[in-house]
Amino acid sequence: MLIRRARRFTSNEITDAKLYLSRREWMIGAALLTLLPGESGAATPQGQPLGATRNEALSLREPATKFEAATTYNNFYEFGVNKDDPARLAHTLTPRPWTVQVDGLVHKPKTYDIDELLRLSPLEERVYALRCVEGWSMVVPWIGVPLASLLRRVEPTGQAKYVEFTTLLDPRQFPGQRAGFFGSTLDWPYTEGLRLDEALHPLTLLTVGMYGQVLPNQNGAPIRVVVPWKYGFKSAKSIVRIRLTREQPPTAWNKAAPQEYGFYSNVNPAVDHPRWSQATERRIGEFRRRPTLPFNGYADQVAHLYAGMDLRKLY
Ligand code: MTE
After folding, report:
1. What is the rounded distance in angstroms from the CA atom of residue 224 to the CA atom of residue 238?
2. Quick check: CB of 134 below 6 Å from ligand 1?
3. Is residue 213 in contact with ligand 1, taking CB distance under 6 Å?
4. Mean pLDDT value across the chain
5. Distance spanning both ends of the chain, measured CA to CA
6. How far is CA 246 from the centre of its chain?
7. What is the reported pLDDT for 182?
8. Whose CA is nearest to atom 14 of ligand 1?
9. N or C, fewer C-beta in 10 Å, the chain?
């Protein structure tokens, strides 16, 4: 990730999670949920309310980062390398119609329409911390379904060990994918991957919304993954393919700078990135830095997945 000067957000740009949607908007959202686009025939534009039930057990008790900050301070290199490029340019992305091909080592490969994915299981809201390897973090109320609910449907074979996520490749919609685009650094399309047990972990969220709304384009519409105990770059945006594999899949940042970005990339305050200390972080909207927690605060739930691994190594 390139070094860019971060925009400073002040404390008044932070909003209480309970306040970002009024009761009335929640009711509209809930009503819309029963009228999902596939059924109504209408497109689902970003910004439309999206109802979901808060999963309290898996949600942080912290105020959410202000919506305005979470949607204007983004990393989405398909739109450029500056934090405000995605918000400025993401109108060129068309999130409907959209399909996600789920294949590879599965018994029931299938190409899902986005609206079918929305109906896989009841939408949940989860308030997670998102920690970027650049040393900033946010608290975001995401909306989605456990990735496991999709993976179980396609029935991974006994040989499947990893899951690869691929972002849309379309230079007409993503200026950053055009040849010669200034700052274009990655080998497109953006790909990421998880081990199958990480992908099946209950915290791993297939995400279609945030802050009670359909996912804004700059945050990875219409569908992304969110893996809260890993650095943010593991959470691939605008996914068109989910493939189960036997071998560890190559990933975009690891290919670009293997000495800087590993496959696992669990948040770890004890292991610095060559350019950024990981010991502390700054929540967007706060002034002071705070200590970074192992596994981004989710150690109780995920540390067992890495038993026996030397976590100081860049895998
Ligand atoms: N996915 C794609 N396709 N392209 C990207 O550039 N950036 C990653 C991740 N997913 C990225 C991506 C990084 S570095 C981070 S920190 C998060 O998205 C940022 O998510 P946000 O903009 O919703 O906060």
Report:
1. 5
2. no
3. no
4. 88
5. 18
6. 23
7. 74
8. 233
9. C
CA–CA dist 217, 85 (Å, integer): 12
CB 184 within 8 A of CB 77: yes
Verify whether ligand 1 is closer than 6 Å to residue 115 (CB atom).
no
Closest atom of ligand 1 relative to the 1 alpha carbon:
14
Size of the chain in residues: 315
pLDDT of 15 over the 70 cut: no
d(CA 206, CA 228): 12
- What lies within 8 Å, CB to CB, of 306 at 6+ separation is 264, 266
Token code pair at residue 183: 């700052």
- Global model pTM greater than 0.85: yes
* pLDDT at residue 5 is higher than 60: no
β-strands 136-146, 124-131 pairing: antiparallel
Identify the CA nearest to 126 among candidates 140, 115, 147. 140
Is the model's pLDDT at 297 over the cut of 90?
yes
By CB atoms closer than 10 A (0-12, 13-18, 19+), residue 295 is buried
More confident residue, 23 or 209: 209
What topology does CATH give the domain 14-306? Sulfite Oxidase; Chain A, domain 2 (3.90.420)
Which pLDDT belongs to residue 313?
80
pLDDT at 2: 57
Q: Is the pLDDT of residue 112 over 80?
A: yes
In order of 10, 74, 97, 202, 224, the CA distances from 237 in angstroms are 27, 11, 16, 19, 4
Longest CA–CA span in the chain (Å) reads: 51
Rounded CA-CA distance 18/30 in Å is 16
Residue 19 has pLDDT above 90, yes or no: no
Kind and range of the H or E run holding 98: none
Each domain of the chain, given as residue ranges in start order, spans 14-306
Residue pair 105/244 in contact (Cβ under 8 Å)? The answer is yes
